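User: Please predict the structure of the protein below. I'd like the answer in structure-token form so I can feed it into my own downstream comparison script.

Assistant: Understood. Taking the following sequence of 381 residues as input:
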Amino acid sequence: MNNKVLLVDDDLDVISAYQRNLRKYFNITTAASGEEALQYIRVNPSFAVVASDYNMPKMNGVELLSIVKKVSPLTVRVIITGFADLETSIKSVNEGSVFRFLTKPISTEDLISSMKECLEQFRLVNSEKELLENTLKGTIKILVDILGATSPETFHLASKIRTTMRDIAYQLNLKNLWEYEIAGLLSFIGCVSIPNEILEKVYKNLDLDDIEKEIYAKHPETGANLIKNIPRFENIADGIKYQYFNYDGTNSKITDKKADELPLISRLLKVAHDFNYYLNRGFSVSDAILQMKVKSFNYDPKILTSLMVLNNYTSKGFVIKSILFKQLRIGMVLEEDLRDEEDFVLIRKGQELTDIMMLRLINMSKFKKFKEPIRIKEFQN
């Protein structure tokens, strides 16, 4: 358990007392100023608790804890002061989001008790964060597995959208890259409600009749409704709902949103979808982008430009190599169709290998052989 506590006070006698009285119970670091404390935190932001005196020169305790909140948001923050007035208390809570407000003089027993409560709060917050992250990962896996089992070809398209989204978001240096990847991967999750006959026609680029078009056009809203109640997926759900909307608003019938009013995830999905639509119809990369440039009013210009920049290189962030079947690993992306010795396609080019796919392939390998070597693209973190 993390029991690292940083105590900050400009009074050296107080610092010495902290070290003497608390070192048996906690992993204590002390600092004589806000600036010194920030140096420690920036080098090692894993302190469970930062407790600071309020009245210090140059940088007071509230100012320090406000910065700590930004640098290490999960760290529990405490103000210790001899000026127990209402204004200081309000500032501490509002600006520094403090967990405890302690007044001097404070006994060693009370200080130890308070630090133990702070460590318990740190443990609870981190446990909740880990639970949430594991819940998200599990939820995503279930949704992706459902899509893959219901319509492998649709999952193949979603995997390609995900890759394009990841590349563009990385190139634009966007925050929360995971949101764009997941949005791409789940962009077709609403297709679980669509008959396979319609999805097959979409994948083969066959024309849909009016009724089929109406059914297919509802999948973004269906997908958004499926995932909008998952914690931290609100932006993704909103982005998926508007994923086919033109940047200039010309094809919108259900909203007045256009241009930068549309969610950024939607604007990325629009570019990723259309780019992969042209590729799926046999266009080269350069010809696909040329088609999109002709209709540039459909796209956020920054995102379309990013796609054009990405087109100037082919393997940034990836390593392409030929390997044997036994060397395949989860996360690798196929650079060519994976076929058996009878030339039957098992997994399409561009698909990322998941744990379920690998399990199926391992089971298949017990009674059939695969064409080797296999060309793959491996993402480099």
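That's the full token string. The chain has three domains: 4-127, 151-312, 313-381.
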